[in-house]
């Protein structure tokens, strides 16, 4: 029999009647039809040109690309396919006439279901490319984020390490300071025990012998002088101890101001007049009437007192102690305390201002606190000067220190040498 395709419908609407569907030729003459991806509900109407017993005609069809077997549908003249996926299909149709003779060659119609635009190969390529680029960008962003986190972590670790090192250094410094404080405390206690034991024992011995019924008036006077001597020694020791302790505890403030030297020199020399008389030592000083220096008055007094007291300590009867000042052209001035006493050995001279240096007994067995020269060095430095000593064993010693000259005052060169403190 002669086969023909009568009509094709999409969603039960004939494509011949659909104004949006353009056919280049009639359905009967068409061998290929294309549909969009959403036009996948297709019905095909077919028939044969055989008017002799048409009720005995039979049909069989299959959609190549979807079906492998033929569909024998008897005399039904319609085939419907729903939900066709995008792809290429071929509709094959054959029939037999009333004598049961089938077509040798089936009628074929090619059908294309076009994919949606997002499934086109070039769109897919772009999409996969964009996905790859996006994944790569995300990967790079992640790597960059990890690197930033690593850098941040490294900075935090470095900062924390610096803080820990700083804390460690601070703790070490505190430990060193604590150790120094402990050493200073031990030294202070040892000095107190060592230097106060002798004078106190001597006082105790003297007071035990004081009996007016036994001792004569001259003996009582000698005992009184000895007691006064011991008390002055204890007082000097206590003053140095208090000054040293106050400086170590940070409770002392250096107040530098112009300071006239003559009144201060007189005060210090008169304070040691009695001690010098007891040993037969001659005291003198040479200071200009208006000689002045920038210094802390209390600290300068302690410097002079320690230097003069040491000089008397290491001199004998007939020796002399002389204090003098001398201005310099560089804006500085020097003060010197010179004695003609026993002198200092060269090996001891190098360690003279060392804190750990033990005190030496004087010519009359006097004991020092061991802090005097250390205080002298410390206070001279606080007042912006330097101190040093020169000595010749058996001939005497000269202690010299410098201060800034108070140039705002009239430095008249009138020499004043007191004889009131001369033995």
Describe this structure in words.
The chain is of the alpha+beta class and 423 residues long. The chain is 40% helix and 24% strand. The protein has 7 helices and 17 strands. It has helices spanning 121-209, 217-248, 261-271, 273-279, 297-313, 346-349, 372-382, and strands spanning 3-10, 13-14, 32-35, 42-48, 58-64, 71-74, 78-81, 87-96, 107-113, 257-260, 282-288, 292-295, 320-327, 332-339, 387-392, 396-405, 415-417. The strands form 3 sheets. Strands 10, 11, 12, 13, 14, 15, 16 and 17 form an 8-stranded mixed β-sheet that branches. The protein has a 5-stranded mixed β-sheet with strand order 3-9-8-5-6, with no helix packed on it. A 4-stranded antiparallel β-sheet has the order 2-1-4-7, with no helix packed on it. Strand 5 (58-64) and strand 6 form a beta hairpin. Helix 1 (121-209) packs antiparallel against helix 2 (217-248), helix 3 (261-271) packs across helix 5 (297-313) and helix 5 (297-313) packs antiparallel against helix 7. The protein is rod-shaped, with a radius of gyration of 61 Å.
Strand content: 15-25%
Rg is 61 Å
Topology, number of strands: 17
Q: Level of helix content?
A: 40-55%
- Overall pLDDT level: 81
Structural classification: alpha+beta
The sequence of SSEs as H and E is: EEEEEEEEEHHEHHEEHEEHHEEE
Count of helical regions: 7
Distance between the termini: 166 Å
Query: Major beta sheet, specifics?
Result: 8 strands, mixed
Shape assignment: rod-shaped
Unreliable runs: 410-423
């Amino acid at each position: 029999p002669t086969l023909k395709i009568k009509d094709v419908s999409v969603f039960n609407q004939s494509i011949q009647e659909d104004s949006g569907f353009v056919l280049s030729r009639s359905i009967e003459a068409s061998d290929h039809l294309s549909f969009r991806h959403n036009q996948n509900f297709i019905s095909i109407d077919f028939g044969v040109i055989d008017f002799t017993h048409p009720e005995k005609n039979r049909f069989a069809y299959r959609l190549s690309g979807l079906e492998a077997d033929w569909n024998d549908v008897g005399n039904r003249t319609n085939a419907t396919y729903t939900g066709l996926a995008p792809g290429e299909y071929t509709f094959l149709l054959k029939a037999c006439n009333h004598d049961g003779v089938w077509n040798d060659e089936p009628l074929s119609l090619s059908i294309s279901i076009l994919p949606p635009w997002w499934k086109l190969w070039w769109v897919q390529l772009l999409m996969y490319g964009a996905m790859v680029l996006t994944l790569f960008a995300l990967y790079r962003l992640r790597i960059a984020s990890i690197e930033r986190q690593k850098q941040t972590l490294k900075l935090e670790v470095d900062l924390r390490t610096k803080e820990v090192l700083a804390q460690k250094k601070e703790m070490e410094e505190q430990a060193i300071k604590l150790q120094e404080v402990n050493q200073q405390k031990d030294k202070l206690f040892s000095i107190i025990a060592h230097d106060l034991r002798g004078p106190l024992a001597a006082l105790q011995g003297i007071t035990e012998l004081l009996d007016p019924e036994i001792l004569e008036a001259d003996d009582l006077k000698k005992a009184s002088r000895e007691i006064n001597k011991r008390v002055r020694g204890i007082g000097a020791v206590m003053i140095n101890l208090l000054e040293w302790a106050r400086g170590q505890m940070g409770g002392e403030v250096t107040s530098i101001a112009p300071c006239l030297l003559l009144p201060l020199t007189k005060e210090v020399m008169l304070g040691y007049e009695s001690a010098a008389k007891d040993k037969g030592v001659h005291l003198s000083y040479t200071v200009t009437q208006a000689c002045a220096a920038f210094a802390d008055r209390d600290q300068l007094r302690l410097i002079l007192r320690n230097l003069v007291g040491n000089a008397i300590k290491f001199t004998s009867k007939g020796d002399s102690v002389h204090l003098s000042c001398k201005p310099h052209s560089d804006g500085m001035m020097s003060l010197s305390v010179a004695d003609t006493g026993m002198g200092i050995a060269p090996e001891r001279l190098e360690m003279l201002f060392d804190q750990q240096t033990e005190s030496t007994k004087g010519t009359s067995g006097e004991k020092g606190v061991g802090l005097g020269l250390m205080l002298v060095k410390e206070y001279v430095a606080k007042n912006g000067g330097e101190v040093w000593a020169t000595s010749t064993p058996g001939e005497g010693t000269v202690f010299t220190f410098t201060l800034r000259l108070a140039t705002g005052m009239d430095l008249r060169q009138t020499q004043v040498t007191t004889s009131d403190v001369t033995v």
